[in-house]
Design goal:
Helices cover 24% and strands 19% of the residues. It has helices spanning 17-30, 40-47, 51-56, 69-75, 86-107, 205-219, 238-253, 265-268, 316-320, 368-371, 418-422, 440-450; strands at residues 4-5, 181-182, 191-192, 260-262, 276-279, 285-288, 302-303, 332-334, 342-346, 351-353, 358-363, 379-389, 393-401, 407-416, 433-438, 456-462, 472-482.
Length: 485
């Protein structure tokens, strides 16, 4: 049996059968105790859990039966962020969820081939693509009963897009990355090399945008809803349609000849010693490795389309690889890593922004790319290392400039999981988040406007007014160059 994942917008109605059955299954899973491996609470806790916060929000009670602590330690708080395992772990997570929801739908009298739908918010052919789908906004279902797809803590947003607190839009720039794995200090589609990593490592391009901004846009900053906090995010039914679309972007990226997908043993067979483990619809658990999530393998999904909203053009290759099951990917298998990067500058002080912006100067090594007054064809990357804060998520505007005050916006970052990555008693001792920004374009603008080499770059960080609930600190700024592909 093949479960085909379809675009919610393609159904052409607010309440297609797929979403009606999804809502019924969510209601059923919410009725189960948290110690049931198929319960809504158990599935959400795999991504992350704040037990007291869940009690405060009425998700569980102090008396709710919980799994043994040894099982919680093994199964819960697994989500992989800031790591090259971000995409395969979430693919396995969505696969497990799809199987459990599908089995529940069938048990309730629905179809046996229910597939997880995706929210195709980057489809330029659909003027309503950015709107949160109607079925997730309605308080009731067509039969008049309460709608479990709506029953989640959100900030009231109805449409994705730039706002006063998040001026950057979501986009498909990640699809321009040709290497899955990031070299040190650079940017790759899938992220940098890490072990099992529950936040704090180098963020990949797809995770940086659109993944993180959609979480923060839907969840909001003030007030903050579930989607903006990794300890609550998977409790919102829209989480799964968002991650289904993120997974689809990877599926589309894998069809492009010339893209290099990591297939080395450290990635394919990793991580170790802690492995990835998911529940099955029968209530058992199963361990999987990233290599099993590639096309033609056990956890490879099947999509109705890989062209709309992915930036990938229609062609013979795309046409024959829309269904991933049993096909070979168009991307090259990673036998060599991406081009090595070179550290050419770093800050000597940390930065902290709250009420006011903060600026530091980074002195640049005078390599050949500086003397040429242009970084092309090389690429230049700005790294914000060990970003810490006290709110679940935040937003940070990052500028690069010259001492005379001229500056360019480098990026707006959605700091998803900020608090979790900053906790000193957490999995990574409060190392914080790490973000990499491709600043080749802004740097070349500065060079061109002043007809001069860049021997120093000023880096400024600031929070939009609505995000100033607590300070955000960046321990180190570093700048790397990398030969262009």
């Amino acid at each position: 049996m093949v479960r085909i994942r379809r675009d919610i917008a393609s159904f052409g109605e607010a309440w297609p059968e797929t979403l009606i059955w999804y809502a019924k299954a969510v209601r059923q899973l919410r009725s189960l105790d948290p110690n049931d491996r198929n319960s809504w609470a158990y599935l959400g806790a795999i991504h992350g859990i704040d037990r007291q916060g869940w009690i405060n929000d009425g998700v569980i009670t102090p008396q709710s039966p919980m799994p043994p602590q040894s099982e919680q330690d093994r199964m819960w708080n697994q989500c992989q962020h800031g790591t090259w395992y971000f995409l395969p772990w979430h693919r396995g997570y969505c696969w497990s969820f799809e199987q459990i929801i599908g089995a529940t739908v069938e048990a309730l009298g629905g179809p046996s081939d229910w597939g997880l739908p995706y929210w195709n918010y980057l489809d330029a052919t659909n003027p309503n693509a950015r709107d949160i789908p109607d079925a997730f906004m309605s308080a009731t279902m067509p039969d008049g009963s309460d709608n479990p797809l709506h029953d989640a803590e959100r900030n009231g947003l109805t449409r994705l897009g730039p706002s006063s607190w998040y001026p950057r839009d979501i986009d498909l720039s990640c699809m321009n990355q040709h290497y899955y794995t990031s070299a040190v200090g650079s940017l790759g589609f899938g992220g940098g090399v890490t072990a099992f990593n529950h936040f704090s490592g180098p963020t990949g391009a797809c995770e940086g945008n659109p993944h993180n901004p959609v979480h923060v846009m839907v969840g909001g900053i003030s007030p903050m809803g579930w989607m903006a906090d990794p300890n609550f995010a998977a409790l919102d039914p829209i989480f799964w349609t968002h991650h289904c679309n993120i997974d689809r972007l990877w599926a589309a990226w894998l069809t492009v000849p010339g893209n290099v997908q990591e297939t080395g043993a450290n990635w394919s067979d990793g991580p170790s010693p802690r492995q990835f483990e998911m529940p099955t619809s029968s209530g058992q658990t199963t361990v999987f490795v990233p290599g099993q999530t590639l096309p033609g393998k056990t956890y490879a999904p099947t999509y109705d389309d890989l062209t709309r909203g992915t930036g990938i053009g229609v062609g013979p290759l795309i046409a024959k690889t829309v269904l991933m099951e049993g096909i070979e990917m168009g991307a090259d298998k990673g036998t060599e890593g991406p081009p090595a990067s070179t550290l050419i500058g770093s800050s000597t002080e940390s930065l902290s922004t709250h009420a006011n912006a903060a600026t530091t100067a980074v002195e640049m090594a005078q390599g050949p790319e500086m003397l040429a007054k242009s970084f092309e064809p090389s690429r230049l990357f700005l790294n914000l290392e060990h970003v810490r804060g006290e709110t679940a998520s935040s937003v940070l505007n990052v500028y690069i400039g010259l001492p005379d005050g001229h500056r360019e916006l480098a990026d707006t970052l959605a700091l998803f999981g900020l608090q979790k990555a900053s906790q000193e008693d957490g999995d990574h001792a409060g190392n914080g988040l790490t973000y990499t920004i491709d600043i080749t374009g802004p740097a070349n603008k500065l060079i061109a406007s002043h007809d001069a080499t860049l021997d120093m770059i000023e880096v400024t960080i600031e929070q939009p007014d609505e995000a100033k609930a607590a300070p955000v600190t960046v321990e180190r700024i570093s700048i790397y160059s990398q030969p262009a592909r």
